[in-house]
UniProtKB/TrEMBL annotation:
Protein name (record): Glycosyltransferase
Keyword tags: Transferase
A single GO molecular function term of this UniProt record: transferase activity
Organism: Sandarakinorhabdus fusca
PANTHER family in alphabetical order: GLYCOSYLTRANSFERASE, GLYCOSYLTRANSFERASE 2-LIKE DOMAIN-CONTAINING PROTEIN
Residue ranges occupied by any Glycosyltransferase 2-like domain in the UniProt entry: 8-107
Length: 325
């Protein structure tokens, strides 16, 4: 297989020494993969060396070391620009691909992006995981609408996170090039969501299939669980920019506004908590009172957090769960 055919698997990595070998090995095991590009985002551990040690000698692996930390969106763009394969697939450095993942996706016609089901597996269960036991559903492919996708990224309090932005599709490079799309480098949260939403807004055919081919390892230290106020505010701003896309229907606009409003509320809550931690409660309250209309939802969020701290409930047993029902 030449570099001008097949899939480029892009693995952005930061301090992923403990998991990068598993990720790289799972990508190199896929026959349809022409390139595996690891972008070491200025790690302070042995990520780059561990990734290099996972090479299978096929000449498909490259490790691109960044001199400074540029963030996950920029790291993805570095790999896109450095690759030549016509199809692109993202693999997070703590996740891995299941054997035979890509063949069913490539056999499905009529897509600009296509995503299979994703299994969330607790870190302590990975070693005992038997891929054959995972859900390999056979339901027909479904085409996502922009409204459905955005609504599928609105989190529900008290439920495990399972937003559609977690999907890891195969994307046609030609579609990104035709529409001038890249990952938004201002985002360090929701960069996948923002790109997928714009693919849909530009008329891209985005299919989902029921078969599970990707394992997302749930780790307490994962970057997706670390949300700064500025990260949330930037994601809300991305939604506002998305509303400027031409040709959006009313259902898409309503969905985007809902997502923006929820994200903006989370940003205000996060900023309040950060200020309280840094400058004390009086300073945080004084800042909040500068915008009185924002106080009720902020007070509700604080009260909810207090209630959860005092009533944590019985811990739920950790188990494998899926992104698609």
């Amino acid at each position: 297989m030449t570099l001008h055919s097949g899939i480029c698997v892009i693995i952005p990595a930061w301090n992923a020494e403990a998991t990068i070998v598993r990720a790289v090995t799972s990508a190199l095991a896929q026959p349809q993969v022409a390139e595996v590009l690891v972008v070491d985002d200025a790690s302070t551990d042995g990520t780059a060396q561990s990734a290099t040690d996972a090479d299978d000698g096929s000449g498909r692996l490259r490790v691109l070391c960044q001199p400074r930390n540029i963030g996950p969106a920029a790291a993805r763009n570095v790999a896109i620009d450095a690759s030549t394969a016509p199809l692109l697939a993202i693999l997070d450095s703590d996740d891995f691909l299941l054997p035979g993942r890509f063949a069913p996706l490539l056999a499905t016609p009529g897509w600009d992006a296509i995503a299979d089901n994703l299994a969330f597996v607790p870190e302590d269960q990975v070693a005992a995981l038997a891929p054959a036991t995972l859900d390999h559903g056979t339901a027909s492919p479904r085409r996502l609408s922009l409204a459905e996708f955005v609504l599928g990224n609105i989190s529900v309090a008290g439920q495990p996170r399972a937003e559609l932005g977690f999907v890891k599709p195969v994307i046609r490079r030609s579609f990104l090039a035709a529409h001038g799309l890249r990952y938004d480098e201002s985002l360090r949260l929701g960069e996948d969501y923002a790109l997928y939403a714009r693919i849909l807004a530009r008329g891209g055919a985005f299919l989902t299939v029921a078969r599970c081919g990707y394992v997302a390892v749930e780790r307490a230290s994962s970057l997706s669980g670390c949300h700064r106020g500025v990260d949330l505010a930037n994601l809300a701003a991305s939604d506002l920019a998305l509303l400027g896309e031409d040709g959006l229907d009313d259902s898409a606009r309503r969905a985007i506004r809902r997502h923006r409003d929820q994200t903006a509320a989370k940003a205000r809550h996060r900023r309040f908590l950060d200020m309280r931690r840094a400058q004390g409660l009086p300073a945080a309250l004084a800042q909040a009172l500068l915008r009185p209309h924002q106080v009720p939802p902020l007070a509700f969020a604080i009260a909810r957090d207090k209630w959860r701290d005092r009533h944590p409930g019985a811990p739920k047993p950790a188990q494998v769960r899926y992104l698609f029902a």
